[in-house]
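User: I'm curious whether this sequence folds into something compact or stays loose and floppy. Could you predict its structure so I can see for myself?
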Amino acid sequence: MIQLTREEAISLVKSHVESNNLVNHMIATGAVMKALAYKFGEDENEWEITGILHDYDYPETDQDPAHHGLLSVEMLKKYNLPKEVYDAILAHAEKKPLETKIEKALYVADPTTGFITAAALIRSEKKLEPLDSKFLMKRFKEKSFARGANREQMSMCSELGFELESYLNLALDAMKSIHEEIGL
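Assistant: Here's the prediction. I'll summarize afterward.
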């Protein structure tokens, strides 16, 4: 059982990561992870904390991707998080094979939040509310849209038992549930 609360994890991230966009990405990834945990009957708090902390070392590893994930695990060791959390952080950064459900979920959720954020920002409202899964599917097929959001990685939702559109709908709903917190 995880000892860190959502609020503590967010506070930890905000004290370490200066970029508001990155903080919002991490919180959004936490929301998607929580929704996936609920769907799978897993520990929602543990999965959400994993999503919130997944890019903890990004300020240090942005220009050094070979250490991304590895440094997060080192920096977060003092919090005695479950091994599954550390393994998921390593797996999302491709520092270990994707083996467990939480590892695959984080790997899939990470680019999805950036993709959904980009979809919101191209609209005049700059909000999540008008988006739906059909709009996201249309944008997904546009290779020039949100190039940084790895489509192959997002498509791995099938390994979690999802069709792409239903997965995007779940992720969108999760992000909509925290829209005020992430400014969308």
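Summary: Residues 6-176 form a domain with the Hypothetical protein af1432 fold (CATH 1.10.3210). The radius of gyration is 15 Å.
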